[in-house]
Amino acid sequence: MAVTSEIQAPRSGRVAPKYTRHGSSRGNFEMLAWLFMRVSGLVLVVLVFGHLFVNLMVGEGVHAIDFGFVAGKWADPFWQIWDLAMLWLAMLHGTNGVRTIINDYADKDGTRFWLKSVLYAATAVIIVLGTLVIFTFDPCPPNAAAELLPSFCPAP
C-alpha cells in the first residue's frame, strides 16, 4: 500500500514574524538599491573602460602616465567630471554591495549597526577626500619652492 502525503508549495506556509511587512516597509529602498546596482554597474563599465583606453592606449600608452599627465588631464573639466563620476559611482556601488553582505551575514542587530556605521563613515571620508583632490588639485601651487615644482610649471 502506498502512502501519499501532500507537499506544500514553496512559501505557502506561515511566514516568520520578523519577515512580515509592515506599513513602514523598506521594500522600496531595497528595490531602488537593487536597481542602482544594475544601472551603476553598467555606467561604471563605460567609465572604467573609457578611463583605461585613454590612459593606456591613446598616445604613448602606459609610459606617458606621470604627474604631468594627470595634471594635464585634470586641467580639463570634462576629465574632472569623468573621474568624479567614476569615484562616486564606484564607492556607492561597492558600499551598497558590502551593505547587502553585512545584512546577509551579520546576525546581531548591534553587529550589523556597527559594521554599517564603519562602512558609511569610510565611504564618506573617501568620497569627500577624493572629490577635494579632483577639484583642488594644482600642480603649480603659488609660493612653492622652485625645486619642488614640476618642470612644466613657470618659475616663480
Automatic annotation (TrEMBL):
Gene Ontology molecular functions: metal ion binding
Pfam families, per the entry: Sdh_cyt
Transmembrane segments: 31-58, 78-98, 118-137
Signal peptide extent: none
Protein name: Succinate dehydrogenase / fumarate reductase membrane anchor subunit
Localization per record: Membrane
SUPFAM superfamilies: Fumarate reductase respiratory complex transmembrane subunits
CDD domains: SQR_TypeA_SdhD_like
Keywords for this protein: Heme, Iron, Membrane, Metal-binding, Transmembrane, Transmembrane helix
InterPro entries associated with the record: SQR/QFR_C/D, SuccDH_FuR_B_TM-su
Cellular component terms (Gene Ontology): membrane
Major subcellular location class: membrane
